[in-house]
Amino acid sequence: MSVKLKLIVAATENMGIGKNGTLPWRLKNEMAYFSKMTTTTKQAGRKNVVIMGRKTWDSIPGKYKPLAGRINFVLSRSDLNLEQFPDSFAFKSFDEAYKKLQDTQFQPSYEDVWVIGGSSLYEEAFASPYFQKLYLTKIQKNFNCDTFFPVELETLKEVSEEDVPQALQEENGVRYTYHVYVKA
Fold first, then answer.
1. pLDDT tens, 122-135?
2. Residue 30: active-site member
3. In angstroms, rounded to a whole number, what is the distance separating the alpha carbons of residues 9 and 133?
4. The one catalytic residue among 5, 7, 30, 156
5. Quick count: other Cβ atoms within 10 Å of Cβ 3?
6. d(CA 140, CA 13)
């Protein structure tokens, strides 16, 4: 079975995704959308996998580690001990994590695979032959960011999906919209 990757990200008008290891905005409903998308499965007894870099893992507040209801894959070049976190695995590389996803004994435990950041992991996953879809929340405002989403949207085609709200959202004076893209 060829594993397909879904990327999910919220980005500003200039594609900013983070500042000092955290999100520069507080959008509770957008975070709930992220949680719903990365947690929901069609088959009972299965979970989704979320793949993230170590900096993304570090940015998650302690009380939310690991991300509940999901299998957490964390990529780190240095040794990372995740034994105290259930359903959490450390890998040295994207390729090492992908091999685990292809393991026939591991496959029955998960349904979808979501890449949740950071920037270099998004870039590697998007460039891979395993990329399937990008779920992008377009925040219609610029925040001061030091990390940016590295994917050129011009290489993609927008599609609609039943579970993705089409209407303009607004929260804390910030407007945003949800979009889904596939390779053109």
1. 999 999 999 999 99
2. yes
3. 11
4. 30
5. 16
6. 6
